[in-house]
Amino acid sequence: MPATKTTADAALQEDYQPLVREQINNDVPLLTYVEKNTKDVEGRRAVLSLHVSRNSGIGSRLEGGTLPTAGSQGFAEERIEMYYHYGRGQLSGPLMRAAQSNRASFERALDGETKKIVNDLKRDMNRQVWGTGDGVIATADVTTSSLLVYLPTTTSDVQFRQLEVGMLVDIGTIAAPTLKTSANAIVRSSGTGTAADRYWIELTSVATTTGTDFVFRSGNGGGPGTTGADQKETTGMQLIVDSTGTLFNVNPTTYSIWASSEFGNSGTNRSISETLMAQVVQDINIRSGTWPNLAITHHGVFRAYANLLLGLKRFNNTVSLKGGYSAGIPFMGGGGNEIPVVTDRDCPANSMYFVNTSHLIEFQASDWEFMQEDGAVLSRVSGVDAYEFILFKYGELATDQRNTHGKLTDVSAA
Question: Who has the most CB within 10 Å: 29, 59, 194, 327?
């Protein structure tokens, strides 16, 4: 019998290529556009002084009339707390020894783990900066002691994609995030989000949930403004770009100027139009005296806007943006300025955000760094033949002028 690849298989060597082919989307566009500020952070917070009201002591009078009552400028103190983000990895001694050369492994173990955990943390930070600060990713539906946890039909594709296989999740309330289950790993997920085929996640251990429970990344749930677990995640754009709610110690009920422009339709989606978009942009200008310079939206809304322009026989050039991003469709928003329209996978569904990036700030007590105060990135794990590393970042996303931003919600996707 002649020798073949089958008969000689046991004697043949595997030729492993030196690089791992990345399959995961590590795109983090929003923070690319945002100014980084390290100089104004002292201790555990940044403190800014905001000018929130004018001097009322002005007026016009007849000759000899009583002059206006003296007034003064109004100021408020904006307090921006830092939040702490970590990534932790561990490698066994035998793995590190076996993976010292590329031919023996897909990647050198240390390089592969340390470089990719940076991408993992950046990916989660992009989720957080579009969130609500309390760690909520999605709402659970009614589940009775099952490995499968169904999500309601109101769950968006954006939320579902944020629940990735392998992720550890807690399920509970914002005040008690681990009330129903904790550190439960997602092993499968599926569904189309329709009534006939709801989204669901399969966990490693059973859970019983109600329609008032939420799904969190394990350990991240809590706050802001709740009695119970404190806020751990960064303050997201859904809170920053809002017309209500106290933000960074300043309440728009007290200072109405501390509110973003918001145009919704009471939960009923409607078709996007340039008139709706212009309404948001012009309201921002009326409130703040500035124009937004960037529109960020969900992919489905972007497609709907593109279809609108196609129907109007409008074809626009692309606009180059910071970080190598490009906008497929600019929008002439007023004041003669062209506003690039871009997509972000974590932007809430059925919405479009108009922001002035000059007034979005990422305050940082530290950027992404490895813990190495003792001079070493790797630390020995006590009692085990293994080493671990910890990546960290201390920071917070904020705005110094909330009324320079706005959002259009309840928009139909294509």
Answer: 327
Q: What is the pTM for the complete model shown?
A: 0.86
- 192 burial (CB, 10 Å; 0-12 / 13-18 / 19+) is exposed
CB 56 within 8 A of CB 384: no
Structure tokens at 238: 């859904």
For 106, 218, 226, 240, 258, the CA distances from 182, given in Å and listed in that order, are: 33, 7, 19, 29, 37
**Residues constituting the chain:** 414
pLDDT tens across 380-404, in order?
899 999 989 898 999 999 999 999 9
Under DSSP, is residue 32 helix (H, G, I), strand (E, B) or coil?
helix
* 96-100, 144-148, 283-287, 401-405: least confidently modelled range: 96-100
- Please name the residue ranges forming H helices in 130-196: 157-161
Q: What is the pLDDT of residue 329?
A: 79
Q: Which two tokens stand for residue 392?
A: 């960290």
* Alpha carbons 141 and 168: distance in angstroms, whole number: 18
- 385: how many CB neighbours lie within 10 A of its CB? 12
Buried (b) or exposed (e) across 4-27, using 16+ Cβ within 10 A? eeeeeeeeeeeeeeeeeeeeeeeb
Collect all residues with Cβ–Cβ distance below 8 Å to 80 and sequence separation of at least 6: 45, 46, 47, 48, 248, 363, 396, 398
At 318, the pLDDT band (50, 70, 90 cuts) reads low
Is the separation of the CB atoms in 397 and 234 below 8 Å?
A: yes
